[in-house]
Amino acid sequence: xxxxxxxxxxxxxxxxxxxxxxxxxxxxxxxxxxxxxxxxxxxxxxxxxxxxxxxxxxxxxxxxxxxxxxxxxxxxxxxxxxxxxxxxxxxxxxxxxxxxxxxxxxxxxxxxxxxxxxxxxxxxxxxxxxxxxxxxxxxxxxxxxxxxxxxxxxxxxxxxxxxxxxxxxxxxxxxxxxxxxxxxxxxxxxxxxxxxxxxxxxxxxxxxxxxxxxxxxxxxxxxxxxxxxxxxxxxxxxxxxxxxxxxxxxxxxxxxxxxxxxxxxxxxxxxxxxxxxxxxxxxxxxxxxxxxxxxxxxxxxxxxxxxxxxxxxxxxxxxxxx
Length: 322
Hints:
Number of domains: 2
Radius of gyration: 24 Å
Shape: elongated
Strand order of the largest sheet: 1-2-3-4-7-6-5
Structural class: alpha+beta
Largest sheet: 7 strands, antiparallel
Number of strands: 7
Distance between the termini: 50 Å
């Protein structure tokens, strides 16, 4: 509705410049105005930074569906067009707008963030404009696939960053894990032996308790699930690949309390030590994100730095390692 109204005042041509300056700016501004309009109805549930991305993505999805229908109505092959646009256009729209959701959340829940909102709309417009521009210009249209993939990856990365800054992510404690009656055998890196124990779980994270050393045990994909939830910004797979090949057991912390066995892909750690290590390292991850050239600059000016909880500035000096 907003986009259709704004388009009345502009003469838009299908070229690279108009794609950025007009199409991108008009359509992304319309999405933001929609978010602003529905905010009074969702503000009770709009209490988490990830909510900003989720709600603006829902608006983008609705925008894409309506746009796809209009294009299909004017096409000689509507079903073929709908199929193509349901993949590229829909994912494209979802990948443009996350910046606005983050900036709007900060503006409404943290502090007034007018500059961040303007910057987020400009970023979304540029992303949208580049997407359309590479389609319009036949001489560079062969690069469209690369631009499309890059935008989708960047949006997924932004979602991961938002999860890292989330205040709703629980702190790791032993009591959050529910015990099952399933008996399992798990390797304990500290004890260097197979332990007969029982499975425990939190969400999709499955673990076990070592009765000999009182550590928690995580094996295989559950190590990744553990980090995805409790330290989402950190690239565990990349970190593991850098571990010395000849050293089977590596310590994630300087106190050698969080041990990882590279060949067995098993992690063993005291739950309190592991929890404190996650807390400290998460604060460092956030600092590193904000210091990334170019991207860090924009994230700072979206005012993402104001989302860091006070606890992230505590000095867990004994966990200063990775």
